[in-house]
Amino acid sequence: MSCLIALALVPAMQDFPNATQTAPFNTAIKVCQIGFKTSESKMAMVTTQTDGDAILWRKGSDRPALVIPVGPASADADSGDEIRVIDFSKLRTPGEYTIEVKGLGKSAPFRIGDDIFAKPFRMSIRAFTGQRASTDVSLAPDFPQYHYKAGHIGMAEYHASSGKAGQRDVAGGWYDAGDYGRYMVNSGITTGTLLWAFEMNSSKLAKLKLDVPETGKSRIPDFLSEVKYNLDWMLKMQDTDGGCWHKATTANFSGFIMPDQDKSPVQVVGTGKGAFKNSTATADLAAVAAIAARAYRPYHRDYANKCLNAARSAYQWVRDHPNELFQRNPQGISTGGYGDGDARDERLWAAAELYRSTGEVSFQDDFIALAKLWPDTLTDSAPPGWPQVRPMALMTFAMTKLSNIDKGYQNRVIHDLGVAADGITARINKNGYCMPLKTNEYYWGSNSVVANYALMLGVADSIFHKPAYRQATMDCLHYLFGRNTFAQSFVTHVGVYSPLNPHHRWSVADGVREPWPGLLVGGPNADNGQKPPAKQWFDDWKNYRVNEVAINWNAPLVFALAGAL
Q1: Is 539 a catalytic residue?
Q2: Which domains does the chain have, with CATH numbers?
Q3: Is the pTM value of this prediction over 0.85?
């Protein structure tokens, strides 16, 4: 079944129920609970047998806005659903709507309008403020009930695996997920993704007031101020020789307590052997700091220079130590591993970003030499993720505009990006829920895979300017915000039905019934062996496999929303 099927309109009838009648929302009618932009494709899915028409009711009106037939049934193997499409793309009048299907009742409400993504964007970027370590946090004025006192504020101890003894200041940064650890490799792709979001949408984002603690206190845009809070922590994790330690965590995960109640000492953790720092963490810093050198230069030249110097120092360390790997936790540490057995993709990303920031051919030479170690470039089956940042490297090379670039290799990457975007778009159009996941991609953090496919489509659209890519990006967002088998928005506080029980310590421990807002939960994860794979999600705070949150999952969501503003 194609998501682009057009269903004929039929005349509005006089004998349909009045819009003021109330009925419970029926989750058999799956619709994006944010809504739709005025000129885009607009579809909902129905998963219950019906012979009735679909009626679009606009809030405040007692006449149907549109009456259309429900499409024929088509099987969706990944969810096990029999899906019928309601295509109401011709409805463009702004307002709040519900869909009624005779015999089923009404859908959750949604809006049509070009500003529909503004609030979810604000919530999803301010969710990073709600992850800040070592400082008092409040999400006022939007959500004043969400606040906590500073935790993990003292000097950290060097763990034996770091190769040093004594203490180090590693205060700051974002808590990585639903726990209180801070990890360099996950901070790397997260921070890089957010900096890309700003670079590609600076005209929209530079003047946004986000009510972060730095608002009104510097020339740096609020969006970049939030990112800087984590980037400053990453810089603290760099040693004087340029190398970076892997993480700053307590020895074990805490219980479900507030940050200031976790009194276990923070430890700086390294590889426990060799150079003690590692190549993946260091190359990630080199890449991210190189992007920062571009992004911050118009607002804070000294900070941009500091970042570029840190990137160069990190890159030189990785040149000297190309294969220092963190693959498992050292003895006595049981927090998140983020182990990686191959640093070539991180080195590739670092070379690409440093070339893009400096124009120095030596970085391009390193990039091309590394890139040719793989037989392919970008594909429609390999979105970026923290263990594999090669797509980030290739996409930044595709976007680079320098006179001394190797046009032959860049043209190959650009061509392959277009082929990949075409493939992702085709898969979305064939999927019952208009989303890009393949059957084998319902794994831990599958929702972030959807968001990272949206990132790839956004980059492709910035080069090719294809409406089909923009629509496919919207379809990814519609899936995440409710047009899925659960009729569930996967972002806390967004939509009528959203997760109430994420695996997130301060959401559980703060005494507020609803969780902290703007957080994307991991989503369906079929590693339990159960089928169908798309059904394997449960709103359970104890189940981190499906319901944890993570900064690297929120980052591509912010990226896609920034493009949709």
Answers
A1: yes
A2: 29-112 (2.60.40.10), 118-487+545-564 (1.50.10.10)
A3: yes
